Fold this sequence. Notes:
Layout: H1 2-16, H2 24-30, H3 34-38, H4 42-81, H5 90-96, H6 102-111, H7 130-174, E1 178-183, E2 188-193
Amino acid sequence: MQKRLIFFIFVWCCAFGQIKKTNPIMQSLIIPGWGQKTLGKKKAARIFSSVEISLWTACAASYLSSYNEKLKYRAFAAQYAGVESEDKGHKYWVDIGNYLNIEQHNAEHLRWREFDELYNENDRWQWNEYGNMQKFEEMRIKSDYLKKTGEYILGTIILNHIISGINTLYILRSENITFTPVFTYKSSYVLLSLSF
């Protein structure tokens, strides 16, 4: 929590503290497209900003869909397997999608000598039919898939920030590259001048 607070304060200071003195590379790392806009590259700024907005929208949609699926499969399990959904971890939901009842689960884990994996009577479930258990498992897997997709999209958002910063660095450095055509009566050539 403390690291997040320090990061938030840093970003806030960079973004709103002294806007005119903020390095364009830092601007692009904070908000993709901002550094490009500062340097007058409106098309690049528009592209990076559009990608950022699209990624955040997709990420929010993925996490919200995952949460809605989670609510659905928990309600489904309560209705068809008699599950009390409070204070249950993710492993519990995985297990009830793989065993018809608590007795099957505990018997198998006793055979494997996995005594820490046993559930007590407070965690009881009993599917009314095998088809409902399969449907529940499909719903749970869909929810997990959507959540994992949201995590991948967050990684892509970070990548977009990095690429935007690199692009701004490229723009800054490319301003120092000059091409000078030189024509003489004996030969013609292009002089490339680089300065960093």
